[in-house]
Amino acid sequence: MENTEKLTNNKQIIAYLVEMFPLCFIAEGEAKPLKIGIFQDLAERLGEDDKVSKTQLRSALRQYTSSWRYLHGVKPGAKRVDLDGVEGDELEAEHIEHAQKALKESKAKVFAERKAAEKEKAAKNPAKKAPVKSAKPARSSKPKAEKPAEKVTYVPAEIGQLKVAQEVKVIVGKAPVPATIVDINKDDVQVQLMSGMTLKVKAQHLIL
What are the tens digits of pLDDT across the range 120-149? Predict the structure, then answer.
């Protein structure tokens, strides 16, 4: 009896789709806009494939089409492709506008998370007040001595140390945030934050 390995996460399923339909799904660079109704086509083509369930397939497809590299590909003049890479209709203006809006909102969320992380760090490290021992203004060197303690030197990861599904910390602003690697493309690493948001960073922005 053939041993069928069940694909259980979006990264594996997307990689499988790239392998099965290389003219449609792209692992690196700007992705091609997909034909409307591509899920139904995939469900038919993979109907006898035990590796992927429809629920998992739908989730992976949602992640693929909400990624920044896919949204960047939804632009004027681009044409949708089917599973065999055959080009169809040119993208409509409303779909392009929707994609650009989604990309803008996605980036705004990343910046908002960065701000929130900085605020959280500031709340955990409030400025300490020197105890009042005399009427003289406190001009001691204590505050200066405390500043270096706030500066933490992180050892950046190297691309060769990283692999898909590895748990790392990504430096967002000044504070490291827990994340999981979902894709590695040359020097670029795509990670998913605990909030579900994905972003692409360089290896030196990651901490093991």
Answer: 888 887 765 545 555 555 565 555 555 554
Looking at residue 1, what is its pLDDT? 39
Looking at domain 10-91, does it have CATH number 1.10.10.10? no
- Kindly report the backbone phi and psi dihedral angles of residue 34, in degrees, each rounded to the nearest multiple of 5, phi listed first: -90, 150
Task: Say if residue 35's pLDDT is above 80.
Answer: yes
Q: What is the DSSP string of 52-105?
A: --HHHHHHHHHHHHHSHHHHHH--TT-EEE-TT--EEEEPPHHHHHHHHHHHHH
Q: Supply the pTM of this predicted model.
A: 0.50
Give the span between the Cα atoms of 163 and 167, in whole angstroms.
9
Which CATH entry fits the domain spanning 99-125+153-207: 2.30.30.140, 2.60.120.430, 3.40.50.300, 3.90.190.20? 2.30.30.140
Q: Give the residues across from 192 on adjacent strands.
A: 180, 198
Please, what is the end-to-end C-alpha distance for the chain in angstroms?
A: 40
